[in-house]
Amino acid sequence: MSKFDEKMEAYRKALSSVKKGAADDALLTKVAKGLGPSIYLRDASLVSCSDDKELARVKTNFLQKKLGMKDEGKMDAAIKAVCGEYTDNHKYRAVFYYLLVKNLGKESVYK
Questions:
Q1: What stretch of H or E contains 73?
Q2: Number of helices and strands (H, E) in the chain?
Q3: Closest by CA position to 7, among listed 96, 95, 102
Q4: Whether the predicted pLDDT of 21 surpasses 90
Q5: 5-25 burial, b if ≥16 CB within 10 A, otherwise e?
Q6: At 46, is the secondary structure helix, strand, or coil?
Q7: Please, which pLDDT band fits residue 22 given cuts at 50, 70 and 90?
Q8: CATH number of the domain enclosing 22
Q9: Residue 39 contacts residue 11 (beta carbons within 8 Å)
């Protein structure tokens, strides 16, 4: 099993504890691949909901630049919703971003 496959297995397990029912595995894979080598770096592979600077980076670098979002209120609400929904101590960035994409209905960005 490759390192990427190991990461994907961890992401699926984390996602199954958050979302009941089937996850969109193809979308999760695309989100993870989009993060590149950062998924293998401990600090870069995680998101901290208690760190305002981290959440600001998520908003700027992912929601605005990658997903093309402009509505500040909608972005803040989505981040807050995902932080409330994904309560694990170690929040994988790929899973966090996947949940944001699903929450905002932005799956078309990855098609």
A1: helix 72-85
A2: 5, 2
A3: 95
A4: no
A5: eebbebbeebbeebbeeebbe
A6: strand
A7: confident
A8: 1.10.238.120
A9: no
pTM: 0.96
Gap between the Cα atoms of 30 and 89, Å rounded: 24
- What confidence tens digit (pLDDT) does each residue in 27-85 have? 999 999 999 999 999 999 999 999 999 999 999 999 999 999 999 999 999 999 999 99
Q: How many domains does the chain have?
A: 1
Can you give the C-alpha Rg of the chain in angstroms? 13
Confirm if 93 and 46 have CB atoms less than 8 A apart.
Answer: yes
Spatial distance between the Cα atoms of 106 and 69, rounded to a whole number of angstroms: 9
The amino acid that residue 105 corresponds to is G
**Strand extents, DSSP E, the chain:** 46-47, 91-92
Please state at what angle helix 93-104 crosses helix 3-18, rounded to 10 degrees: 50
Domain range for 53? 3-110
